[in-house]
From TrEMBL, chain B:
InterPro entries: MetI-like, MetI-like_sf. This is ABC transporter permease. SUPFAM superfamilies: MetI-like. GO terms for cellular component: plasma membrane. The keyword DNA repair does not apply. It is found in: Cell inner membrane; Cell membrane. Keywords: Cell inner membrane, Cell membrane, Membrane, Transmembrane, Transmembrane helix, Transport. One of its GO terms (biological process) is transmembrane transport. The lineage of its organism: Bacteria, Pseudomonadati, Pseudomonadota, Alphaproteobacteria, Hyphomicrobiales. It comes from Mesorhizobium zhangyense. Signal peptide: none annotated.
Amino acid sequence: MRLPLHWLGVAPFFIFALMFLILPTFYLVVGAFQNDQGQFTLENIASLFQPSILAAYWISIKVSFASAILGALIGIAISIAIVRGGLPRWVRSATMTFSGVASNFAGVPLAFAFLATLGRLGLVTILLRDVLGINIYALGFNILSFWGLTLTYLFFQIPLMVVIITPAIDGLKKEWGEAASTLGATQFQYWRMVAIPVLWPSFLGTVILLFANAFGAIATAYALTGSSLNIVPILLYAQIRGDVLHNPHLGYALAFGMIFITGLANIFYIWFRTRSERWLK
Amino acid sequence: MKVSRFWAWATFIVGAAYFFIPLIATLEFSLRMRRGEYSFDAYRVVLGDIRFQETFGYSVIIACFTIVLGVVLVVPTAYWIRLRMPHLRPVVEFITLLPLIIPAIVIVFGYIRMYGSNSPIPFLGSTRGTDVLLIIGYATLALPYMYRAVDTGLRTIDVRTLTEAAQVHGAGWTTIIARIILPNVLIAVLSGAFLTFAIVIGEFTMASLLNRPAFGPYLQNIGANRAYEPAALAVIAFAITWGCMSVIQVLSRFAPKSANNPN
């Protein structure tokens, strides 16, 4: 009879997780498969495939994907530069400190910063127009667009990549490079046959984490674009506030769709991470 | 194998430009309120705004309660898992990662449906109750960071020996956790606390959907209605984030580096 006492130590945590994390999510997931009378139905899920909702998912996926891939590539380039580029030590520590700050600088203030930079009256917009004679808004650029949002998201995506991937780059052992060059490998062969295969799982895993990170984000987009850019979290936000879809159960289905996509992404992430940890011991 | 130094510098400088230009632009924009000259007018307006003071104060209080709840929830759990139930570690770790999988907007949507004023547990029936639910929501958002910080801290101390030594002297569980374990992982707990603060202080989604007068919804409201004040607020918010991260950096210098207990 020792078991119950044992469990008492972790009971508060599990009760908390159940009440405030698992059951609320479960409630929405069940609701997504019910109609107003509480009967099982796939109708709500099917309604997700109407053009306006599909378009919202599609733009969300595009922005998240673009900002994850670009963030990951630029982030890893910066990581390699500061770890392997023979730069002074302060460059590395300054970059790591700044990345810690910038990866947490998201939400509404980030939107303000980019409006002040690339909005119609932003510093860069005006400098480009007055000094170089390039009117980016006349050329079709708009901060309230796919590229505007992606460019803004990169401000937290790149630093997050740097924070996560730098330990993995550190984990590339010197001996591997030396062994490769002793065996006559060129720089290119070393990267292609040693470094990239070792880094690949953590790279891919982090891309997925960045994707989920952008996919669930709402505050930046909402402050930046109001509701003019119809991404899924903004649509869900409007639905919760005022049932804009005129069907509460469709709101549940919308939430279910979001969990489904980020959940799928994270299953891949966990899988890749366990694979990459084998190398980084 | 080295990357050429030229490309390393080029990458670093381009990256630095991308990150510093928006910050400089925001700073410059925030000083432009008075026509024809730079001034701190926007800051004066913002800091003097009673709504700023109220919402900021509210969010600071909510953040403090969130930190307390996070610590009370995470420290005993992480300790107990390490001491007695290591087989549950994967389960607990998975749960602490859930808030990264389930977006905040979905969690709060669930709360609104489950804890409405007609439900068995009507958190949303009163203002106090809604505040409590907001604190709970923030504690779940901060859970991944708090748990990792505390667990890393526990790794550097010998949990088993400390516990046995305390028990020999007749200490109960509350004493052990509050007076032996907590002080030993205090630096890790403080790192988690400041990270929590940075996340919570300007959070928008949960506060807005629960209709609480927090700093995040205030920021959004100012952004929709004013020109120069948002830039000043962005500079202030950046300074707060920077401050929290700097404290964490400084704290990490005091943290014990080597693990004397390899599990």
